[in-house]
Amino acid sequence: MAEIKKQPLNKSQLVACGFIIVSILLIIALIYRGTVMVNPETMPVKSGPGISYSTVKVSKTHRVLITGERHSWYRVRLNDHQSAWVPSWLIHSHTPLKKSNYLAGATIAIDPGHGGSDSGAAYFTDSSKSRYQEKTYTLAIAKRLARQLEKAGARVVMTRSKDRAVGLKERVKIAENQQVDCFISLHLNSSPNRNEASGVTTYYYHQNRSKVLARAVSRHFSNLPLSNRGIDFGDFLVIRDTSIPSILCETGYVNSKKDFRQIRRPSFQRRVAQDIRAGINDYLKQIQ
Ligand SMILES: [Zn+2]
Q1: What is the 187 CA–ligand 1 centroid distance (Å)?
Q2: Which residue among 148, 194, 253, 254 is the one 20 to 30 A from 35 at the CA level?
Q3: Inter-residue contact 237 to 168 (CB < 8 Å)
Q4: What is the per-residue pLDDT for 30?
Q5: Distance, CA 112 to ligand 1 centroid (Å)?
């Protein structure tokens, strides 16, 4: 019987083996890079890149191949005959949602009024020594609202996220370019003379979805320590010259001592943000 002697691999054979192993690993890495896990329980699965498209039925979680991307949504291949779209930010989120909700997959534009050289209205102390500017508080509320919406699975587009001037038409353009589902402009009211008026008003311009959104948000403002003045028609450029459902919230009179005492409080700002988030959720429930 012939004896089979094991020959150690020579140098060129070792190089060839190494090459094959590296190639296999690279192919696996490439396949996984282009795939994502889709879980219909925790994210919307739609027929197009947005929550307004119809829902595609997917029975269980599975790994799918990405075949395209638009407005931060991935197009994925479910099987040989069917594609669907999923929000990319929910796929890559470090804190995945436990359950999908109406805000999950929505894109919301938040527009903190004024900024930079445009400080908006102001509150002056009795001695007129200190001046508190509207732009500071619209941004503070906007940041709280952004955090809450993101926590619920929405994507947020801010027209400004720091103290800088942005033109009114530019604000609309930012939102239109990002295909947002609704636009929330944040302001504080001001009366001709100080301490003359008080309360929260929600403005809409367009009758259709903007008015539905205004009603949905305004309903929640009734839990605030300031009176809820309800909804009203308002001829403001950012909610007028747009195709997006848009509202403008004036959450208190900045030149009223009573209102400003609330406006400056983090607890009030948080409650305003919670109310707007809840209102947007109700609105999305109505339209989806
Ligand atoms: Zn303003």
Answers
A1: 4
A2: 148
A3: yes
A4: 62
A5: 9
Question: What is the maximum alpha-carbon separation in the chain?
Answer: 112
Segment (H or E) for 203: strand 200-204
CATH number of 107-287: 3.40.630.40
Q: Helix or strand or coil: residue 165? A: coil
CA 263 to chain centre: 23
The residues of the chain that CATH labels 3.40.630.40 are 107-287
pLDDT digits (tens, 9 = 90+) for 195-211: 999 999 999 999 999 99
Q: What Å distances lie between residue 77 and 29, 65, 72, 136, CA to CA?
A: 19, 5, 16, 46
**In the predicted model, is pLDDT for residue 4 greater than 70?**
no
**Residue 257, CA distances (Å) to 54, 132, 187, 239, 264 in order:** 49, 12, 17, 28, 11
- Residue 280's nearest CA partner among 154, 179, 159 is 154
Span from the CA of 78 to the centroid of ligand 1 (angstroms): 47
The fold adopted by the segment(s) 33-91 is SH3 type barrels. (2.30.30)
- Between the CA of 151 and the centroid of ligand 1 the distance, in Å, is 27
Beta strand pairing call for 107-112 and 122-124: unpaired
Residues 6+ positions from 187 with CB-CB distance below 8 Å: 113, 114, 120, 134, 138, 248, 249, 250, 251
pLDDT by residue (tens digit) across 25-65?
A: 777 666 666 888 899 899 999 999 999 999 999 888 888 99
* pLDDT score at 5: 63
